Amino acid sequence: MPRSVNSVAKRARRKKVLKQAKGYFGRRKNVWTVAKNAVDKAMQYSYRDRRVKKRTFRALWITRINAGARLHGMSYSQFMGKLKANNIELNRKVLADLAMNNPAAFEAVVNKVK
Fold it and tell me: What GO CC annotations are associated with the protein (predicted)?
């Protein structure tokens, strides 16, 4: 009996990976073995960096809150401590947005906790 191979599925798998590698430089975009490794590595990076993005944004928000708080004579840690003590439950994302785009509202929050 002849050997049975599923070339259709094999070609479909390879086309899927080569489609994901579209836009890569050199052999990474059109040579199967190179493209497969490049796409696998890219998927690992994207999985990792979806989590890193959350850390990066939190750091950005903290920097913005700190800059806003220092304009009113307070450090970031003092400001956040007084927020907790006064039971004001605004998260860092909202506070950073206020500090950047609505300084009057941020000043009102700072005056409330002083």
Answer: ribonucleoprotein complex; ribosome
Q: Answer positive or negative: Cα dihedral of 71, 75, 81, 82.
A: negative
- Cβ-contact 63, 69 below 8 angstroms: no
| CB-CB contact of 73 with 82 (8 Å) | no
What is the structure's pLDDT at 98?
Answer: 97
Which one is the CATH code of 9-113: 3.30.1330.60, 3.30.9.10, 1.10.1900.20, 3.30.230.70? Answer: 1.10.1900.20
Give 41-46's long-range contacts (Cβ < 8 A, gap of 24+): none
pTM assigned to the model: 0.82
* Domain range annotation of the chain: 9-113
Tell which phi-psi region holds residue 105, choosing left (phi > 0), alpha (psi between -120 and 50) or beta: alpha
